[in-house]
Amino acid sequence: MRTALTVAGSDSIGGAGIQVDIKAMSVVGVHATSVITAVTAQNTQGVDGIFPMPEEFVQAQLEAVLKDCDIKAVKTGMLYNAEIVETVADILEDHEVPLIVDPVMISGTGCSLCDDDFVKALKKKLLPICELVTPNRHEAEVLAGMSIKGEDDVTLACELIGKQGSSVLLKGGHMKGPKVIDYLYLSSEFNKLEYPRLNKAGHGSGCALSAFITANMAKGLDIVNAVMKSRDLIQESIATQYAIGKGDVVVNPMVKMKGESDKFRILDSLDNAAAKIVDIVPDEFVPKAGMNIAFALKEAAGPEEIAAIDKRLVVHNGILRKNGPAKFGAAEQLSYVLLEIMKHDPKDRCIMSLAYRNDILDVMEEVGMTAVAVEMPKDKIAEATAKAVGIAGKVPDAIVDKGSKKDRIIRLIARDPELMMQKLENIL
User: Fold this and answer.
1) Do 86 and 121 form a contact (C-beta atoms < 8 A)?
2) In whole angstroms, what is the distance from residue 273 CA to residue 322 CA?
3) How far apart are CA 204 and CA 293, in angstroms?
4) Per-residue pLDDT tens digits for 13-24
């Protein structure tokens, strides 16, 4: 299962911090590991006390998790002081993993959650190594060193916060207007995300949003898609927030967006299959440009609804390895073959590419598999796939490229990655 990490404080009321991060990540289908930076005594009315963890113990927690788990994305929340910021930054800068920084400074009830040196350390040590920072209006004003009153101020603030390379999601919940407008600053460009304004966001909304984003990035989504999907989730979380005490309501992180669970299952299935592929496939079956496996959503309408291993599986220094995570839209050519296959049998939703071997057709025949050899020109790949189905009288187990002998490709077809692994084992 994909795993993410939250580095944040503990909220004794369970509406924010580590507690809400774990719930939010679980909703997205990610296992949440955690490093606790501080323990708070708080409830829905305020914060009564803060006990920061010694930086040595924060370091011990981080190292324990990172040396054991394959962490796909990390978020930081409440870090409280400069010493903890520096400890976390020094460890994470040695790990190539997406980092999302939620620059927590004040609780939802208006209480300070950081000391005086925190902001300076955050700007110097953590922001330069993060992928995305998610400030609200107040936090953005502090990080940018300016007042934010209008859209021009938002633009400048994002540029100042992101000047060292990070993307910025400046949340608009604390700004006035009939709609909530969030601003995503990415690669020197701005995207405005508009949503209906609901009731005042409850306790934990910022934590839940950054946790949703982190989990979606752990699933292989890029920043834009992770933010958009997560923003839909937090909108539903705010719409269904509830009361547990005498003060602020808390957001409901245990929401689910329609159709998302199917995507998560597809990504997990591909990850599991890829892990097996790197263990069992000999180098001779790997095309020079790399191999891939793709799996489509039911009734997929285009390549964006078909997931594959990003940047393929390739042989490097004699070792087959994944170049990236499972990701939707990552294998356009395989997707067009699979889309044509699904027109003939919608249940066949998985395809894998292998390098051609001289004896492969004989091996397939011996194990009872149907293979068809046709020319597969890139500009007529759908037509060639339909021709292969026509020759076989059904969807074959494999379509073999009949083109030039150089770099010929075999495309195995199955209903899902688990059955694909069975077919693969039969011919190896």
Assistant:
1) yes
2) 11
3) 39
4) 999 999 999 999
Tell me the two tokens of residue 264. Answer: 């998560």
Residue 365 parent element (H or E): helix 360-366
Compute CA distances 422 → 80, 232, 293, 416, whole Å: 51, 38, 14, 10
Taking every pair of Cα atoms in the chain, the longest distance, rounded to a whole number of angstroms, is: 75
Which secondary-structure segment (H or E) carries 57?
A: helix 55-66
Residue 179 carries which side chain, given as an amino acid letter?
A: K
Dihedrals phi, psi of 408, to nearest 5 degrees: -70, 145
Does residue 58 sit in helix, strand or coil?
Answer: helix
User: What share of residues in the chain are helix, strand, coil (percent, to 5)?
Assistant: 40, 25, 35
* Identity at 263, one-letter amino acid code: K
- Token reading at 343: 């027109």
- What distance in Å separates the CA atoms of residue 351 and residue 8, rounded to the nearest whole number? 41
In which element (H, E) is residue 242 found?
none
3-state secondary structure of 119: helix
Q: What is the pLDDT of residues 206-251, one digit of tens each?
A: 999 999 999 999 988 889 989 998 999 999 999 999 999 999 999 9
In angstroms, the CA 330 to CA 225 distance is 14
For the sheet with 326-328, list strands across it. Answer: 326-328, 306-309, 293-296, 350-355, 409-414, 398-401, 371-374
- Mean of pLDDT values over 404-421: 89
What CA–CA distance (Å, rounded) separates 238 from 227?
Answer: 16
| Residue 351 near residue 341, CB atoms below 8 Å | yes
Interval 254-311: pLDDT, tens: 987 656 668 878 988 998 899 999 999 999 999 999 999 999 999 999 999 999 999 9
Q: Which residue has the tokens 């920084």?
A: 101
